Amino acid sequence: MAEMGLSRALGSPNGAMRRGWNGITISRDTIHIPGIELGFKRPVLFERHAVGGEYGAGWKKVGKGRLLTTFFPENMDEGKPTIVDGRELKDDRSVCVVYDNPLDNVEDLAHVFFQRCLDAKVVPYVVTKKTVFKWQEGFWQIMREVFDSEYKAAFLSAGLLDKTGGELQHLISDAATMQIIRWTDGGFGMACHNYDGDMLTDEVAQVHRSPGFITSNLIGKREDGALIKEFEASHGTVADLWHAHLRGEETSMNPLGMVVALFGAMDHAAVLENDPKILELTQRFTGCARAAVYAAFRDGR
Asked: What DSSP string runs through the chain?
């Protein structure tokens, strides 16, 4: 705050965009360079629910006492206030946290995820911790209902459910953490809640050598139903690199991720404008960029 001359701390700009654009998902996929052996041999796709969870939480430091969390319906004529939770706080120092997990756009997330997995010919998995966090059951149920009713037949026909017994498989987040390390052949996709997606995609990045080999694409929805897509490099606001730059140090902010983000945005623009010439141009650019990265690795630069 002092450095920027602010009177109050600002929230995350990424969080503001995700909320403002009715954030459906943050898609993060592995980038592959022909000729370079990275962590995963085949593509890994990831969908991280773009809203909800700890990122929008309210909290207070408190002491001993009683906590009561109450929900008030928007239309009080249609329902009564509901006590969500009540508990006695016995410690002299505690932190109380309240957050919600919106579910209205999980169906949209499901369509994005399953279609992408089908197009990329990878096996889909849904990840939660619903065995302990019972409130995550709704996320899994919506994902499974969409899959069974609209995508299962296509996945069966493509042979993409042979390893999962012909069904959409659910993974507990603990198991997903271990499988990401083990499944280095790639060829899978995962969809999960906001926080789990944040942590698990970091793990995917490490297995695949670097966040520089991971894409990041925020997908939201306009009021008219059209999808909004924002492409970026897969890293945060990199304040540490900014301070290093101010000290005169050499820095690098994921140049490959930035280039791939630019080409992704151009691809999306080409689709919106129905312009095959732009699409052809970005495909050529993408090929050149990957060839340049390969040449740099080959020459030890």
From this structure: -TTTT-SS----HHHHHHHHTT--EEEEEB---TT---S-SS-EEEEEESS-GGGG-EEEEE-SEEEEEEE--SSTTS---EEEEEEEE-SSSEEEEE-----TTHHHHHHHHHHHHHHHT-EEEEEE-TTT-GGGHHHHHHHHHHHHHHTHHHHHHTTTTGGGTTSPEEEEHHHHHHHHHH-TT--EEEEE-HHHHHHHHHHHHHHTT-GGGBEEEEEEE-TTS-EEEEEEESS---HHHHHHHHTT------HHHHHHHHHHHHHHHHHHHT-HHHHHHHHHHHHHHHHHHHHHHHTT-
pLDDT in tens, 45-80: 999 999 999 988 999 999 999 999 999 999 888 789
How many residues are recorded in the chain?
A: 301
Reply yes or no on whether the pLDDT at 94 is more than 90. Answer: yes
**In the chain, what are the domain boundaries?**
13-56+100-238
- Considering only the top CATH level, what class is 13-56+100-238? alpha beta
Chain-centre distance for alpha carbon 228: 15
